Amino acid sequence: MPAAAISVSEVLKQRASVRAFRNTPVPQAVLDEIFSLAQMAPSNCNVQPCRAYVVSGAKKDQLKQELVSAVMSGAPPNPDFEWNVKYEGVHRERQFGSANALYGAMGVERTDKPSRQIAMLRNWGFFDAPHAAFFTMAKYLQITGAVDLGIYAQTLALLMAERGISSCMQGALGVYPDPARKMFGLSEDTGILFGMSFGYPEDNAPANKARTDRVALDATVQFLS
Ligand SMILES: Cc1cc2nc3c(=O)[nH]c(=O)nc-3n(C[C@H](O)[C@H](O)[C@H](O)COP(=O)(O)O)c2cc1C
Predict the structure, then answer these.
(1) What's the whole-model pTM score?
(2) Which residue among 11, 14, 17, 193 has the greatest number of ligand 1 atoms within 8 angstroms of its CB, and so is best to mutate?
């Protein structure tokens, strides 16, 4: 699909995380273009710490199976980086707000724990997307590298959106890292920070109707002069 004439502002007005996809793969030439352009994302001191792994086809199916088994086994999460933050105050309220938007759109009741768990499990099935990216970096980089990886991932997401490709960033993909670590042959000093499922959206899927709100502008930014 050729790049559409759509501005970044328009992309941002239209965008939302997508959690249901058509199974049409993105052509490799389009992936090459997106990932080449994403190389232009800035990074601290230009260290370019991100090493991304994109799984598709049989490898993606294998990883999906292994990840779902790992989660279902009841084994405790063992993320390579600190994903255990417990949100407090307004952050907790906003966390509930985003969960309510998603489960509300899916028709899942707040009290219906089994259905919520099934919906949550879809994270490790990549929401049936044809592709998933895993963002890895040297563990010692900690917060500095995490900032760079976040900027890289959002750059990718914007390039994708420009081409009609939707995505969902997923901290969940960093929580049970072992199957992906094994598949990618990662060394001990490298960690998976997070991931992203992506592909062409299934527009009519209830999960894709979820819309989150945003705080007032003055709660995010103050202009001083
Ligand atoms: C770093 C990061 C990690 C995220 N992890 C997950 C995740 O594991 N599962 C999920 O369904 N959504 C995940 N999201 C998506 C957020 O829930 C979503 O961006 C937020 O609720 C705002 O909604 P919107 O993207 O539709 O505007 C993540 C987003 C980011 C930026």
Answers:
(1) 0.96
(2) 17
